[in-house]
Amino acid sequence: MRPPVPPHYLSFRIVLVVVLIGALAGGTWWVVQREVWTEVIRFLSMHVLP
Amino acid sequence: MPALIAALIGVTLYGAACYLTVVFIVGPAWPFLIIGAGGIGILLVFVMLAGTLLRARGLEADSVTPLDVRARLPDVKSNFERDQAWPNYLFAQSRSDLGTALMRTTFVVSRMWASMAEFVGHAPAVLLFGPLLLLPLTAAASLTAGAAVGGIVFYGLLGVVLALAWLSWLLVVGLLRGADLGIRLLRGAKATCHHAGCNYRNRLPAYRCACGVTHHDIRAGRLGAFARRCQCGSLLPTTVLQAAAGLMAVCQKCDRPLRAGAAVLTDVLVPVFGPASAGKTRLVFAGMVALDRNLRAASGSLHPIGPESVNTFSHATTVVESEIQTTKTAADRPPAGITVLLTAARSKALLHLFDAAGEFFDNREQTSELPFLDDAQGLVFVLDPFSIPAVRDDLTGAMAFRLEEAQPAMLHPEQAYLVTAQLLRDQGVKLKCKPLAVAVVKADLLFGLPPAAQLHPAAASGAVEAWLRDKGLDNMLDGAARDFGMVRYFLVSSCNAAIDVNGWVNPTSPARPLLWLLARSGVSVAAPRLAAMP
Asked: φ and ψ at B213, to 5 degrees?
Protein backbone atom coordinates (compact mmCIF):
# COMPACT_ATOMS: atom_id res chain seq x y z
CA MET A 1 0.00 0.00 0.00
CA ARG A 2 1.36 3.42 -0.94
CA PRO A 3 1.95 5.72 2.04
CA PRO A 4 -0.02 8.99 1.95
CA VAL A 5 2.72 11.33 0.83
CA PRO A 6 2.52 15.04 1.62
CA PRO A 7 0.96 17.21 -1.10
CA HIS A 8 4.14 19.18 -1.72
CA TYR A 9 5.80 16.04 -3.09
CA LEU A 10 3.18 16.02 -5.86
CA SER A 11 3.69 19.73 -6.54
CA PHE A 12 7.45 19.29 -6.94
CA ARG A 13 6.98 16.23 -9.16
CA ILE A 14 4.49 18.01 -11.40
CA VAL A 15 6.94 20.90 -11.79
CA LEU A 16 9.73 18.49 -12.71
CA VAL A 17 7.54 16.62 -15.21
CA VAL A 18 6.49 19.92 -16.78
CA VAL A 19 10.18 20.83 -17.08
CA LEU A 20 10.87 17.44 -18.70
CA ILE A 21 8.00 17.77 -21.16
CA GLY A 22 9.06 21.30 -21.94
CA ALA A 23 12.62 20.19 -22.57
CA LEU A 24 11.51 17.33 -24.83
CA ALA A 25 9.02 19.47 -26.74
CA GLY A 26 11.49 22.33 -27.01
CA GLY A 27 14.24 20.03 -28.20
CA THR A 28 11.99 18.43 -30.81
CA TRP A 29 10.76 21.81 -32.01
CA TRP A 30 14.33 23.05 -32.29
CA VAL A 31 15.44 20.01 -34.24
CA VAL A 32 12.51 20.31 -36.65
CA GLN A 33 12.91 24.04 -37.11
CA ARG A 34 16.59 23.77 -37.98
CA GLU A 35 16.11 20.76 -40.22
CA VAL A 36 18.71 18.99 -38.20
CA TRP A 37 17.26 15.63 -39.18
CA THR A 38 17.92 16.30 -42.84
CA GLU A 39 21.45 17.51 -42.13
CA VAL A 40 22.25 14.50 -39.97
CA ILE A 41 20.93 12.02 -42.50
CA ARG A 42 22.87 13.76 -45.26
CA PHE A 43 26.04 13.76 -43.19
CA LEU A 44 25.69 10.12 -42.27
CA SER A 45 24.82 9.12 -45.85
CA MET A 46 27.88 10.86 -47.24
CA HIS A 47 30.26 9.19 -44.83
CA VAL A 48 28.66 5.82 -44.27
CA LEU A 49 27.35 4.77 -47.66
CA PRO A 50 30.04 3.16 -49.79
CA MET B 1 39.80 -31.39 -55.45
CA PRO B 2 36.11 -31.01 -56.13
CA ALA B 3 35.61 -30.37 -52.43
CA LEU B 4 38.21 -27.61 -52.51
CA ILE B 5 36.58 -26.01 -55.50
CA ALA B 6 33.19 -26.24 -53.80
CA ALA B 7 34.63 -24.60 -50.67
CA LEU B 8 36.18 -21.81 -52.70
CA ILE B 9 32.87 -21.18 -54.45
CA GLY B 10 31.05 -21.24 -51.11
CA VAL B 11 33.44 -18.74 -49.54
CA THR B 12 33.19 -16.51 -52.56
CA LEU B 13 29.38 -16.60 -52.52
CA TYR B 14 29.36 -15.92 -48.74
CA GLY B 15 31.71 -12.98 -49.24
CA ALA B 16 29.56 -11.65 -52.05
CA ALA B 17 26.43 -12.03 -49.94
CA CYS B 18 28.12 -10.19 -47.09
CA TYR B 19 29.23 -7.42 -49.38
CA LEU B 20 25.77 -7.06 -50.90
CA THR B 21 24.21 -7.06 -47.40
CA VAL B 22 26.51 -4.27 -46.26
CA VAL B 23 26.01 -2.23 -49.43
CA PHE B 24 22.28 -2.63 -49.90
CA ILE B 25 20.89 -3.26 -46.39
CA VAL B 26 23.26 -2.18 -43.62
CA GLY B 27 24.63 0.89 -45.35
CA PRO B 28 21.32 2.57 -46.19
CA ALA B 29 19.71 1.59 -42.89
CA TRP B 30 22.58 2.70 -40.66
CA PRO B 31 21.80 6.44 -40.44
CA PHE B 32 18.15 5.81 -39.78
CA LEU B 33 19.03 3.18 -37.16
CA ILE B 34 21.39 5.59 -35.41
CA ILE B 35 18.82 8.37 -35.35
CA GLY B 36 15.89 6.12 -34.47
CA ALA B 37 17.63 4.14 -31.75
CA GLY B 38 19.25 7.28 -30.38
CA GLY B 39 15.79 8.88 -30.17
CA ILE B 40 14.43 5.80 -28.47
CA GLY B 41 17.31 6.04 -25.97
CA ILE B 42 16.39 9.66 -25.22
CA LEU B 43 12.71 8.73 -24.93
CA LEU B 44 13.60 5.84 -22.64
CA VAL B 45 15.20 8.28 -20.18
CA PHE B 46 12.21 10.61 -20.47
CA VAL B 47 9.66 7.83 -19.91
CA MET B 48 11.57 6.44 -16.93
CA LEU B 49 11.88 9.88 -15.35
CA ALA B 50 8.30 10.95 -16.04
CA GLY B 51 6.93 7.55 -14.98
CA THR B 52 8.86 7.66 -11.72
CA LEU B 53 7.85 11.23 -10.97
CA LEU B 54 4.20 10.56 -11.79
CA ARG B 55 4.36 7.32 -9.78
CA ALA B 56 3.23 5.14 -12.67
CA ARG B 57 2.58 1.61 -11.53
CA GLY B 58 5.82 -0.36 -11.41
CA LEU B 59 7.99 2.73 -11.87
CA GLU B 60 7.38 4.61 -8.61
CA ALA B 61 10.24 5.22 -6.22
CA ASP B 62 10.09 4.35 -2.53
CA SER B 63 8.66 7.22 -0.50
CA VAL B 64 10.99 8.76 2.07
CA THR B 65 8.75 8.74 5.13
CA PRO B 66 9.34 10.30 8.57
CA LEU B 67 10.71 6.96 9.71
CA ASP B 68 13.47 7.21 7.09
CA VAL B 69 14.69 10.76 7.76
CA ARG B 70 17.31 9.75 10.32
CA ALA B 71 18.90 7.38 7.82
CA ARG B 72 18.40 9.54 4.71
CA LEU B 73 19.28 13.01 5.99
CA PRO B 74 22.52 14.20 7.60
CA ASP B 75 22.75 14.07 11.39
CA VAL B 76 21.85 17.20 13.32
CA LYS B 77 24.23 18.96 15.71
CA SER B 78 22.08 18.37 18.74
CA ASN B 79 21.69 16.10 21.73
CA PHE B 80 18.67 14.64 20.01
CA GLU B 81 18.22 12.71 16.80
CA ARG B 82 16.50 14.40 13.88
CA ASP B 83 12.76 14.87 14.42
CA GLN B 84 10.47 12.42 12.68
CA ALA B 85 8.53 14.48 10.17
CA TRP B 86 8.08 14.38 6.41
CA PRO B 87 11.27 15.75 4.83
CA ASN B 88 11.18 18.47 2.21
CA TYR B 89 11.08 16.99 -1.32
CA LEU B 90 14.42 18.63 -2.18
CA PHE B 91 16.48 16.69 0.33
CA ALA B 92 15.55 13.06 0.22
CA GLN B 93 12.65 12.27 -2.08
CA SER B 94 14.13 14.07 -5.10
CA ARG B 95 17.27 11.98 -4.83
CA SER B 96 15.17 8.87 -4.39
CA ASP B 97 13.05 9.67 -7.47
CA LEU B 98 15.93 10.60 -9.77
CA GLY B 99 18.08 7.74 -8.47
CA THR B 100 15.31 5.19 -9.03
CA ALA B 101 14.68 6.45 -12.58
CA LEU B 102 18.41 6.30 -13.36
CA MET B 103 18.71 2.82 -11.90
CA ARG B 104 15.75 1.55 -13.96
CA THR B 105 17.07 3.15 -17.18
CA THR B 106 20.49 1.61 -16.59
CA PHE B 107 18.81 -1.71 -15.92
CA VAL B 108 16.85 -1.62 -19.19
CA VAL B 109 19.95 -0.76 -21.25
CA SER B 110 22.15 -3.34 -19.57
CA ARG B 111 19.37 -5.93 -19.86
CA MET B 112 19.23 -5.21 -23.61
CA TRP B 113 22.97 -5.87 -23.99
CA ALA B 114 22.73 -8.95 -21.82
CA SER B 115 19.85 -10.34 -23.93
CA MET B 116 21.83 -9.82 -27.13
CA ALA B 117 24.87 -11.55 -25.70
CA GLU B 118 22.70 -14.34 -24.37
CA PHE B 119 21.05 -14.81 -27.77
CA VAL B 120 24.39 -15.09 -29.54
CA GLY B 121 25.67 -17.39 -26.82
CA HIS B 122 22.75 -19.76 -27.20
CA ALA B 123 22.84 -19.81 -31.03
CA PRO B 124 26.40 -19.18 -32.20
CA ALA B 125 25.30 -20.01 -35.75
CA VAL B 126 23.85 -16.52 -36.08
CA LEU B 127 27.42 -15.24 -36.21
CA LEU B 128 27.43 -16.53 -39.78
CA PHE B 129 25.09 -13.63 -40.53
CA GLY B 130 27.80 -11.29 -39.31
CA PRO B 131 27.01 -8.26 -41.47
CA LEU B 132 23.34 -8.44 -40.60
CA LEU B 133 24.27 -8.49 -36.90
CA LEU B 134 25.69 -5.03 -37.41
CA LEU B 135 22.12 -3.74 -37.50
CA PRO B 136 21.10 -4.72 -33.92
CA LEU B 137 24.62 -3.87 -32.73
CA THR B 138 24.32 -0.37 -34.20
CA ALA B 139 20.82 0.03 -32.81
CA ALA B 140 21.91 -1.04 -29.32
CA ALA B 141 24.95 1.22 -29.38
CA SER B 142 22.86 4.15 -30.61
CA LEU B 143 20.18 3.52 -28.01
CA THR B 144 22.85 3.45 -25.30
CA ALA B 145 24.40 6.65 -26.62
CA GLY B 146 20.94 8.28 -26.88
CA ALA B 147 20.15 7.26 -23.30
CA ALA B 148 23.48 8.70 -22.13
CA VAL B 149 22.87 11.99 -23.96
CA GLY B 150 19.25 12.11 -22.75
CA GLY B 151 20.41 11.35 -19.22
CA ILE B 152 22.95 14.16 -19.28
CA VAL B 153 20.43 16.64 -20.69
CA PHE B 154 17.39 15.70 -18.59
CA TYR B 155 19.24 15.10 -15.34
CA GLY B 156 21.26 18.27 -15.89
CA LEU B 157 18.06 20.25 -16.45
CA LEU B 158 16.32 18.78 -13.41
CA GLY B 159 19.51 19.33 -11.43
CA VAL B 160 19.44 23.03 -12.34
CA VAL B 161 15.73 23.28 -11.40
CA LEU B 162 16.34 21.53 -8.08
CA ALA B 163 19.44 23.66 -7.41
CA LEU B 164 17.39 26.83 -7.99
CA ALA B 165 14.69 25.50 -5.67
CA TRP B 166 17.39 24.65 -3.12
CA LEU B 167 18.78 28.19 -3.28
CA SER B 168 15.27 29.61 -2.80
CA TRP B 169 14.78 27.26 0.13
CA LEU B 170 18.10 28.39 1.62
CA LEU B 171 17.04 32.02 1.32
CA VAL B 172 13.60 31.39 2.86
CA VAL B 173 15.03 29.31 5.70
CA GLY B 174 17.72 31.90 6.42
CA LEU B 175 15.17 34.74 6.48
CA LEU B 176 12.70 32.82 8.63
CA ARG B 177 15.30 31.67 11.11
CA GLY B 178 16.93 35.09 11.25
CA ALA B 179 13.62 36.92 11.79
CA ASP B 180 12.45 34.40 14.36
CA LEU B 181 15.67 34.49 16.37
CA GLY B 182 16.14 38.24 15.93
CA ILE B 183 12.72 39.10 17.34
CA ARG B 184 13.22 36.73 20.25
CA LEU B 185 16.69 38.09 20.97
CA LEU B 186 15.37 41.63 20.98
CA ARG B 187 12.64 40.59 23.37
CA GLY B 188 15.10 38.74 25.59
CA ALA B 189 12.93 35.65 25.29
CA LYS B 190 14.01 32.31 26.71
CA ALA B 191 12.35 29.07 27.72
CA THR B 192 12.79 28.40 31.41
CA CYS B 193 11.74 25.08 32.89
CA HIS B 194 9.99 25.74 36.18
CA HIS B 195 9.96 22.11 37.29
CA ALA B 196 11.84 21.24 40.44
CA GLY B 197 15.15 19.57 39.78
CA CYS B 198 15.34 20.61 36.13
CA ASN B 199 15.22 24.39 35.66
CA TYR B 200 16.83 24.01 32.23
CA ARG B 201 16.91 27.24 30.25
CA ASN B 202 17.56 27.83 26.58
CA ARG B 203 16.22 29.76 23.59
CA LEU B 204 14.70 26.84 21.72
CA PRO B 205 12.17 24.64 23.50
CA ALA B 206 10.80 21.44 22.03
CA TYR B 207 7.18 21.41 20.84
CA ARG B 208 4.71 18.57 21.17
CA CYS B 209 2.36 17.75 18.34
CA ALA B 210 -1.25 16.84 19.13
CA CYS B 211 -0.33 13.21 18.34
CA GLY B 212 2.18 13.20 21.20
CA VAL B 213 5.36 13.28 19.13
CA THR B 214 7.92 15.77 20.42
CA HIS B 215 9.74 17.94 17.87
CA HIS B 216 13.06 19.02 19.34
CA ASP B 217 13.96 21.50 16.60
CA ILE B 218 10.87 23.09 15.11
CA ARG B 219 12.83 25.65 13.09
CA ALA B 220 12.75 25.89 9.32
CA GLY B 221 15.09 23.38 7.71
CA ARG B 222 15.25 20.14 5.78
CA LEU B 223 11.92 19.08 7.28
CA GLY B 224 10.15 22.12 5.87
CA ALA B 225 10.64 25.81 5.18
CA PHE B 226 7.25 27.41 5.88
CA ALA B 227 5.68 24.41 7.60
CA ARG B 228 6.58 20.86 8.50
CA ARG B 229 4.33 17.85 8.41
CA CYS B 230 4.46 15.63 11.46
CA GLN B 231 4.38 11.88 10.93
CA CYS B 232 0.71 12.00 12.00
CA GLY B 233 0.00 14.33 9.07
CA SER B 234 -0.52 17.52 11.07
CA LEU B 235 1.06 20.68 9.72
CA LEU B 236 3.29 22.44 12.22
CA PRO B 237 4.79 25.94 11.98
CA THR B 238 8.53 26.40 11.58
CA THR B 239 9.12 29.42 13.77
CA VAL B 240 9.11 29.51 17.53
CA LEU B 241 6.95 32.63 17.43
CA GLN B 242 4.21 30.77 15.52
CA ALA B 243 4.66 27.47 17.34
CA ALA B 244 4.13 29.13 20.71
CA ALA B 245 0.68 30.22 19.57
CA GLY B 246 -0.70 26.75 19.06
CA LEU B 247 1.63 24.06 20.28
CA MET B 248 2.65 22.92 23.73
CA ALA B 249 6.24 23.88 24.51
CA VAL B 250 8.16 21.25 26.44
CA CYS B 251 11.53 21.30 28.17
CA GLN B 252 14.41 19.98 26.07
CA LYS B 253 15.89 18.36 29.16
CA CYS B 254 13.04 16.86 31.19
CA ASP B 255 10.36 16.70 28.46
CA ARG B 256 7.75 18.27 30.73
CA PRO B 257 5.44 21.11 29.62
CA LEU B 258 6.69 24.66 29.91
CA ARG B 259 4.68 27.72 30.76
CA ALA B 260 2.61 29.37 28.04
CA GLY B 261 4.65 32.05 26.32
CA ALA B 262 7.95 30.29 26.95
CA ALA B 263 10.66 31.35 24.46
CA VAL B 264 8.56 34.12 22.91
CA LEU B 265 7.99 36.51 25.80
CA THR B 266 10.72 38.41 27.60
CA ASP B 267 11.96 35.96 30.17
CA VAL B 268 13.33 37.24 33.43
CA LEU B 269 14.74 34.76 35.87
CA VAL B 270 15.45 36.00 39.36
CA PRO B 271 16.81 33.56 41.92
CA VAL B 272 16.54 34.61 45.51
CA PHE B 273 19.41 33.28 47.59
CA GLY B 274 20.56 33.54 51.14
CA PRO B 275 20.95 31.41 54.29
CA ALA B 276 18.14 29.49 55.99
CA SER B 277 15.67 31.61 57.98
CA ALA B 278 16.88 34.79 56.28
CA GLY B 279 13.37 35.49 54.97
CA LYS B 280 13.66 34.51 51.31
CA THR B 281 10.21 32.94 50.97
CA ARG B 282 8.64 35.87 52.77
CA LEU B 283 10.40 38.29 50.43
CA VAL B 284 9.20 36.33 47.37
CA PHE B 285 5.62 36.18 48.66
CA ALA B 286 5.45 39.84 49.67
CA GLY B 287 7.36 40.87 46.55
CA MET B 288 4.83 39.15 44.27
CA VAL B 289 1.85 40.67 46.06
CA ALA B 290 3.47 44.12 46.06
CA LEU B 291 4.38 43.81 42.39
CA ASP B 292 0.80 42.82 41.58
CA ARG B 293 -0.57 45.91 43.31
CA ASN B 294 2.04 48.17 41.77
CA LEU B 295 1.28 46.88 38.28
CA ARG B 296 -2.46 47.22 38.76
CA ALA B 297 -1.96 50.82 39.85
CA ALA B 298 0.06 51.37 36.69
CA SER B 299 -2.70 49.88 34.47
CA GLY B 300 -0.77 46.65 34.13
CA SER B 301 -1.39 43.20 35.52
CA LEU B 302 0.27 40.21 37.07
CA HIS B 303 -1.04 36.71 36.45
CA PRO B 304 0.45 33.55 37.88
CA ILE B 305 0.97 30.99 35.12
CA GLY B 306 0.32 27.33 35.74
CA PRO B 307 -1.56 25.61 38.57
CA GLU B 308 1.45 25.53 40.92
CA SER B 309 2.09 29.25 40.50
CA VAL B 310 -1.62 30.02 40.91
CA ASN B 311 -1.68 28.08 44.18
CA THR B 312 1.54 29.67 45.40
CA PHE B 313 0.35 33.17 44.52
CA SER B 314 -3.00 32.57 46.22
CA HIS B 315 -1.19 31.27 49.32
CA ALA B 316 1.23 34.22 49.20
CA THR B 317 -1.64 36.70 49.04
CA THR B 318 -3.29 35.10 52.06
CA VAL B 319 -0.04 35.01 54.02
CA VAL B 320 0.91 38.60 53.23
CA GLU B 321 -2.54 40.12 53.68
CA SER B 322 -3.10 38.27 56.95
CA GLU B 323 0.47 39.08 58.01
CA ILE B 324 0.89 35.52 59.25
CA GLN B 325 4.19 33.67 59.52
CA THR B 326 5.67 32.00 56.46
CA THR B 327 6.35 28.29 56.78
CA LYS B 328 9.86 27.04 56.26
CA THR B 329 10.71 26.00 52.69
CA ALA B 330 11.25 22.25 52.29
CA ALA B 331 14.95 21.51 52.03
CA ASP B 332 14.60 17.92 50.88
CA ARG B 333 14.06 18.78 47.22
CA PRO B 334 15.18 21.44 44.77
CA PRO B 335 12.84 24.39 44.35
CA ALA B 336 10.20 24.79 41.68
CA GLY B 337 9.96 28.20 40.04
CA ILE B 338 7.03 30.53 40.51
CA THR B 339 6.11 32.04 37.16
CA VAL B 340 4.07 35.18 36.74
CA LEU B 341 3.08 36.96 33.56
CA LEU B 342 3.67 40.68 33.86
CA THR B 343 1.76 42.97 31.55
CA ALA B 344 2.79 46.57 31.65
CA ALA B 345 1.93 49.43 29.35
CA ARG B 346 4.58 48.64 26.77
CA SER B 347 5.76 45.17 27.55
CA LYS B 348 4.87 41.65 28.48
CA ALA B 349 7.25 39.40 30.35
CA LEU B 350 7.47 36.15 32.23
CA LEU B 351 9.10 36.53 35.61
CA HIS B 352 10.39 33.36 37.24
CA LEU B 353 11.19 33.61 40.91
CA PHE B 354 13.22 30.77 42.34
CA ASP B 355 13.21 30.36 46.07
CA ALA B 356 15.45 27.55 47.28
CA ALA B 357 15.62 26.47 50.91
CA GLY B 358 18.52 28.19 52.67
CA GLU B 359 20.17 24.85 53.34
CA PHE B 360 21.07 24.69 49.64
CA PHE B 361 23.36 27.66 50.12
CA ASP B 362 25.21 26.24 53.09
CA ASN B 363 27.80 24.42 51.02
CA ARG B 364 28.95 24.13 47.43
CA GLU B 365 27.77 20.56 46.91
CA GLN B 366 24.17 21.54 47.55
CA THR B 367 24.41 24.83 45.69
CA SER B 368 25.39 22.89 42.57
CA GLU B 369 21.86 21.43 42.58
CA LEU B 370 20.51 24.87 41.70
CA PRO B 371 21.11 25.22 37.96
CA PHE B 372 18.88 28.29 37.69
CA LEU B 373 21.62 30.33 39.35
CA ASP B 374 23.74 30.09 36.19
CA ASP B 375 21.58 31.96 33.71
CA ALA B 376 19.73 34.53 35.78
CA GLN B 377 19.22 38.11 34.61
CA GLY B 378 19.91 39.25 38.13
CA LEU B 379 20.02 37.88 41.64
CA VAL B 380 18.52 38.88 44.93
CA PHE B 381 20.64 38.21 48.00
CA VAL B 382 18.56 38.17 51.16
CA LEU B 383 20.52 39.52 54.07
CA ASP B 384 19.05 39.08 57.51
CA PRO B 385 20.43 42.00 59.58
CA PHE B 386 19.79 40.04 62.76
CA SER B 387 22.34 37.45 61.66
CA ILE B 388 25.12 40.06 61.58
CA PRO B 389 27.28 39.50 64.70
CA ALA B 390 27.59 43.25 65.38
CA VAL B 391 23.78 43.59 65.46
CA ARG B 392 23.30 40.50 67.58
CA ASP B 393 25.89 41.74 70.05
CA ASP B 394 23.91 44.95 70.49
CA LEU B 395 20.70 43.08 71.23
CA THR B 396 21.43 41.58 74.61
CA GLY B 397 19.86 41.91 78.00
CA ALA B 398 16.50 43.68 77.81
CA MET B 399 16.67 43.74 74.00
CA ALA B 400 17.30 40.03 73.66
CA PHE B 401 13.62 39.31 73.06
CA ARG B 402 13.73 41.48 69.94
CA LEU B 403 16.44 39.20 68.60
CA GLU B 404 14.39 36.11 69.34
CA GLU B 405 11.35 37.74 67.77
CA ALA B 406 13.28 38.23 64.54
CA GLN B 407 14.15 34.50 64.32
CA PRO B 408 17.52 35.33 62.77
CA ALA B 409 19.33 33.19 60.24
CA MET B 410 21.99 31.06 61.86
CA LEU B 411 24.53 31.31 59.05
CA HIS B 412 26.70 34.40 58.73
CA PRO B 413 25.54 36.32 55.60
CA GLU B 414 29.10 36.55 54.35
CA GLN B 415 29.44 32.77 54.28
CA ALA B 416 26.17 32.29 52.37
CA TYR B 417 27.20 34.93 49.86
CA LEU B 418 30.75 33.65 49.36
CA VAL B 419 29.66 30.03 48.80
CA THR B 420 27.16 31.00 46.10
CA ALA B 421 29.42 33.57 44.44
CA GLN B 422 32.30 31.10 44.33
CA LEU B 423 30.08 28.45 42.76
CA LEU B 424 28.91 30.85 40.08
CA ARG B 425 32.49 31.90 39.33
CA ASP B 426 33.58 28.26 39.12
CA GLN B 427 30.84 27.55 36.61
CA GLY B 428 32.07 30.37 34.40
CA VAL B 429 29.05 32.59 34.95
CA LYS B 430 29.89 36.14 33.93
CA LEU B 431 28.81 37.85 37.13
CA LYS B 432 30.18 41.16 35.87
CA CYS B 433 27.25 41.26 33.44
CA LYS B 434 24.65 40.69 36.13
CA PRO B 435 23.09 42.99 38.70
CA LEU B 436 22.76 42.01 42.34
CA ALA B 437 20.03 43.36 44.59
CA VAL B 438 20.95 42.99 48.24
CA ALA B 439 17.70 43.01 50.22
CA VAL B 440 18.27 43.80 53.88
CA VAL B 441 15.04 42.27 55.15
CA LYS B 442 13.11 42.47 58.41
CA ALA B 443 13.45 46.26 58.27
CA ASP B 444 10.16 46.62 60.21
CA LEU B 445 11.75 44.80 63.15
CA LEU B 446 15.03 46.64 62.81
CA PHE B 447 13.83 50.23 62.91
CA GLY B 448 13.91 51.77 66.35
CA LEU B 449 16.54 49.40 67.67
CA PRO B 450 19.90 50.77 68.83
CA PRO B 451 21.96 49.01 66.13
CA ALA B 452 19.81 50.70 63.44
CA ALA B 453 19.94 54.19 64.88
CA GLN B 454 21.58 55.56 61.71
CA LEU B 455 19.02 53.92 59.42
CA HIS B 456 15.99 55.70 58.02
CA PRO B 457 13.14 53.87 56.21
CA ALA B 458 13.82 55.94 53.11
CA ALA B 459 17.55 55.22 53.20
CA ALA B 460 19.09 55.10 49.76
CA SER B 461 21.32 52.28 48.55
CA GLY B 462 24.50 54.11 49.59
CA ALA B 463 23.20 54.68 53.12
CA VAL B 464 22.27 50.99 53.51
CA GLU B 465 25.69 49.97 52.21
CA ALA B 466 27.40 52.34 54.65
CA TRP B 467 25.39 50.86 57.51
CA LEU B 468 26.36 47.33 56.54
CA ARG B 469 30.03 48.36 56.39
CA ASP B 470 29.66 49.89 59.79
CA LYS B 471 28.42 46.49 61.01
CA GLY B 472 31.53 44.77 59.74
CA LEU B 473 30.43 43.32 56.41
CA ASP B 474 33.16 45.14 54.43
CA ASN B 475 34.58 41.91 53.14
CA MET B 476 31.26 40.70 51.72
CA LEU B 477 30.36 44.10 50.27
CA ASP B 478 33.76 44.49 48.61
CA GLY B 479 33.40 40.98 47.19
CA ALA B 480 29.93 41.77 45.82
CA ALA B 481 31.18 45.01 44.23
CA ARG B 482 34.07 43.09 42.68
CA ASP B 483 31.97 40.12 41.50
CA PHE B 484 28.85 41.77 40.07
CA GLY B 485 28.38 44.43 37.43
CA MET B 486 26.12 46.48 39.64
CA VAL B 487 25.05 46.11 43.28
CA ARG B 488 22.18 47.95 44.86
CA TYR B 489 21.10 47.76 48.48
CA PHE B 490 17.47 47.86 49.60
CA LEU B 491 15.94 48.03 53.02
CA VAL B 492 12.94 45.75 52.83
CA SER B 493 10.03 45.03 55.07
CA SER B 494 8.35 41.84 53.92
CA CYS B 495 5.64 41.75 56.59
CA ASN B 496 3.20 43.23 54.07
CA ALA B 497 3.09 44.48 50.50
CA ALA B 498 4.03 47.98 51.67
CA ILE B 499 2.05 49.59 48.87
CA ASP B 500 -0.88 51.90 49.52
CA VAL B 501 -4.27 51.72 47.83
CA ASN B 502 -3.09 54.01 45.05
CA GLY B 503 -0.21 51.70 44.22
CA TRP B 504 2.36 53.99 45.73
CA VAL B 505 5.39 52.02 46.80
CA ASN B 506 6.63 52.32 50.33
CA PRO B 507 10.44 52.83 50.30
CA THR B 508 10.79 49.51 52.13
CA SER B 509 8.44 47.65 49.77
CA PRO B 510 9.56 44.12 48.85
CA ALA B 511 8.68 44.97 45.25
CA ARG B 512 11.57 47.40 44.90
CA PRO B 513 14.41 44.88 44.38
CA LEU B 514 12.24 43.09 41.79
CA LEU B 515 11.28 46.31 40.02
CA TRP B 516 14.92 47.32 39.85
CA LEU B 517 15.98 43.95 38.38
CA LEU B 518 13.08 44.02 35.91
CA ALA B 519 14.11 47.48 34.75
CA ARG B 520 17.70 46.23 34.35
CA SER B 521 16.34 43.39 32.17
CA GLY B 522 14.55 45.81 29.89
CA VAL B 523 11.05 45.25 31.22
CA SER B 524 9.58 48.71 31.35
CA VAL B 525 7.21 48.39 34.27
CA ALA B 526 5.99 51.80 35.34
CA ALA B 527 8.49 53.46 37.65
CA PRO B 528 7.46 52.92 41.27
CA ARG B 529 6.07 56.02 42.87
CA LEU B 530 7.43 56.29 46.34
CA ALA B 531 4.97 57.05 49.07
CA ALA B 532 5.95 59.75 51.51
CA MET B 533 7.15 58.33 54.79
CA PRO B 534 5.65 59.64 57.98
From this structure: -75, 135
